[in-house]
Design brief:
The complex is a heterodimer. By secondary structure, chain A is an all-beta fold. Chain A is 0% helix and 56% strand. Chain A has no helices and 11 strands. Chain B has no helices and 11 strands. The chains are: A mainly beta, B mainly beta.
Chain lengths: 113, 110
């Protein structure tokens, strides 16, 4: 299957700082990428859908000014958690659509202290 | 009502057993059905996808979709300890948005 690389795999940051997470499709072009958040023992919660060259579409309840998404190229989307707080600590996963299949990155464990 | 319902388990079976994992859904517009395997602290890995109703087999894995009952299943034959993971079902109407089950944790005991 296609490969999606997500970086970093884990990050610890201080409260109030910003963190950027990168999602790259390595061997295909992804016009659509998805960003999810996963809480322990729960399923993936879609945060936003990102299309190359256009603004991301955020799900209800997700603050677009806090979770900045940029999809500048067909192989790269970034999620920036701005002014992070401890309640933002979670597992963030990106997914890239390749035709009629969706492939996931390895996930990023964010801990805000 | 959730779009997709999945029993969280955990499901514990002995090595070699046949495992049956299931999901139900409410949206009749769903046409694409997927099963993902997720190991602890890793991203989900696509196992199989099926379009519309029917069966699909890949090695020890068989996916079944019954659209009339809004019910999908994943069967694992000759289960191995390495199959121990959380299995997520997912579905979509048009690939613009995916809906996930909560995941079933499977433990295959040696």
């Amino acid at each position: 299957g296609a490969v999606v690389s997500q970086h970093p795999s884990w990050v610890i940051c201080k409260s109030g700082t910003s963190v950027k997470i990168e999602c790259r499709s390595l061997d295909f072009q992804a016009t659509t990428m998805f960003w999810y958040r996963q809480f322990p023992k729960q399923s993936l919660m879609l945060m936003a859908t990102s299309n190359e060259g256009s603004k991301a579409t955020y799900e209800q309840g997700v603050e677009k000014d806090k979770f900045l998404i940029n999809h500048a190229s067909l192989t790269l989307s970034t999620l920036t958690v701005t002014s992070a707080h401890p309640e933002d600590s979670s597992f963030y996963i990106c997914s890239a659509r390749a035709g009629i299949e969706a492939f996931f990155g390895q996930g990023t464990r964010l801990t805000v202290v | 009502q959730k779009e997709v319902e999945q029993d969280p388990g955990p499901l514990s079976v002995p090595e070699g057993a046949i495992v049956s994992l299931n999901c139900t859904y409410s949206n009749s517009a769903f046409q694409y059905f997927m099963w993902y395997r997720q190991y602890s602290r890793k991203g989900p890995e696509l196992l199989m996808y099926t379009y519309s109703s029917g069966n699909k087999e890949d090695g020890r894995f068989t996916a079944q979709v019954d659209k009339s009952s809004k019910y999908i299943s994943l069967f694992i034959r000759d289960s191995q300890p390495s199959d121990s993971a959380t299995y997520l079902c997912a579905m979509s109407a048009n690939f613009n948005k995916f809906y996930f089950g909560s995941g079933t944790k499977l433990n295959v005991k040696p």
